[in-house]
Amino acid sequence: xxxxxxxxxxxxxxxxxxxxxxxxxxxxxxxxxxxxxxxxxxxxxxxxxxxxxxxxxxxxxxxxxxxxxxxxxxxxxxxxxxxxxxxxxxxxxxxxxxxxxxxxxxxxxxxxxxxxxxxxxxxxxxxxxxxxxxxxxxxxxxxxxxxxxxxxxxxxxxxxxxxxxxxxxxxxxxxxxxxxxxxxxxxxxxxxxxxxxxxxxxxxxxxxxxxxxxxxxxxxxxxxxxxxxxxxxxxxxxxxxxxxxxxxxxxxxxxxxxxxxxxxxxxxxxxxxxxxxxxxxxxxxxxxxxxxxxxxxxxxxxxxxxxxxxxxxxxxxxxxxxxxxxxxxxxxxxxxxxxxxxxxxxxxxxxxxxxxxxxxxxxxxxxxxxxxxxxxxxxxxxxxxxxxxxxxxxxxx
Length: 397
Fold this sequence. Notes:
Blueprint: E1 2-4, E2 7-8, E3 11-12, E4 16-18, H1 32-61, H2 84-107, E5 125-139, E6 144-161, E7 164-179, E8 184-199, E9 204-223, E10 228-247, E11 249-250, E12 254-269, E13 272-273, E14 282-284, E15 287-306, E16 309-322, E17 328-333, E18 341-344, E19 351-362, E20 367-378, E21 385-396
Antiparallel strand pairs: 1-4, 2-3, 5-6, 5-21, 6-7, 7-8, 8-9, 9-10, 10-12, 11-12, 12-15, 13-14, 14-17, 15-16, 16-19, 17-18, 19-20, 20-21
Domain Autotransporter: 120-397
Pfam family, one: Autotransporter
Protein name: Autotransporter outer membrane beta-barrel domain-containing protein
């Protein structure tokens, strides 16, 4: 309220009053579209790290076999017979070879290795590529968040000794997250490089991975006050790694392996401001957060010989627990140049259980394509779910 008078030659006027009504802008930290947008970026960053860790660990598991360990099909190439006589001869030779190999395996003190089908003797260098599509959803009393993530990795590794293999690779990830049902969306991209190595003396193995990612996000947030969309872009970086160890119980046709894993990621997201929403544009402070996850699992494989190679059936059960979570952010209005409000982000399930099945097909000349499915269920009250379809291809040369 403002009171004033006017002065003139004839005197002073009576006081007058002007009343100003200032409408306060809402607290953005209470807006589900705001917390949902930042939560989607936060979760996507973690999912990008998990995508690359999963792809590279999938490759590392295939490096545990050694050519120096006896294997019933190691180094065998298959050719399709062209006549009935050839097929009969191949059957006799095949049965005789299996009997002879079984006798050699029984005499050997080491357990026979499950053949990988990705390398033959003398082929130390291998190229591989793999990736998956992940569909997930989370919800609580105020927000519903769904995402689709694609993670692709490729690399080259070299077997330095029968027990040591190391390689280098790169990966790409893309995430699309929808928040609520008002059109709010976050799009994320990642580009990664990684070094990995496997040490596998006898039946024990230790796998290591270290990588770096560059992140980019574009957001479109619905502003309910004006029914427009605020848009923004931000960049970030990430370091991730994992250490896995376990033991492989090998049989001539099967493998059972209990294992444990610790994986970590450290992420930095830069400051950014929105546009296109006028006085309702927001500014987001830089974010730094890390996650440490411990996992324990059991995987099994069974090989089925066929005329053109072999099929490897796979199954897995894995329990994971999030050790720490620093999910928070600060936000303010862009025209005030501050980050007045602090908000807690949507927290992912701290405990999950994953069940998976898959198969690899070992083809002639060291070519091994594979396909797998995994379902992940959150064990906390949030009840999040994710479904993953994975494909991979290994080529030895």
